[in-house]
Amino acid sequence: MAAAIAFIGISRQVSVSRDTARADAWWTMFEWASDRAIPSRLDDQPLPTTVTIRTLQRLADEATSSTQEAACAGVIDVLTKDLDSALSEPLQGQDDGAPNERSDSALAALASYVESSRGTPAASEIAEALVYENDVTKALISLSWEDPSVRIYRDPPMGFDNGVDAIAESDGKRVLIQIKRPSSPDRARAMVSRTISALRSRARESDALLIITPYAPPLPQEQEAELRAVVAQWNQPEDNESLRSALIRATTL
Q: Which 3 state secondary structure label does DSSP give 239?
């Protein structure tokens, strides 16, 4: 009996040692990745964003505590902000405005991270919002390819610097497009209302508004006319046709 108790005690010690060693190895890899993703010195060369995101996804998958997962999310937040800045070049509905290959690769890696970490402490709302905005932007550009009379511009340098994500032009009419991904459906309606109020206070009187979100229901017809704004729900490419209809409806307001 005494031998059995001693064996159990030793087994537990070995298990704790293994867990500690595993945690130490995890943190060593995390520190290596984060230090090279966000160098502390200006002359340090950071790792390619795609490599860092894929490394963080693997670390999040292998994490054994919520603290480790949250640490991955924190670095992803920073990387996403940097990637968003890199994507702020004008994006027109033609190939010359498409994201470059490096940014495209980083966005694909970020989309994979978002999918694998959804609903866990490793999830990043900032990353989820950027991936959603990129997916919607692709959908908008595909609409401009299908209908040459509609041109889509992302962050156009037209002196209209009020935070819109894109501008659509059709038959001389402008539609200001804002893409919003609230963290939950409960926050969607209030966010859409604030967005419309903020844009309407700064937009030209002739400009219509199109708010795209995965959650909020469309505005009643009388409100669309009063606010000159349309709310469209988009979650997947199958929603492209309803998005096109919302955009066309906005040009008639």
A: helix
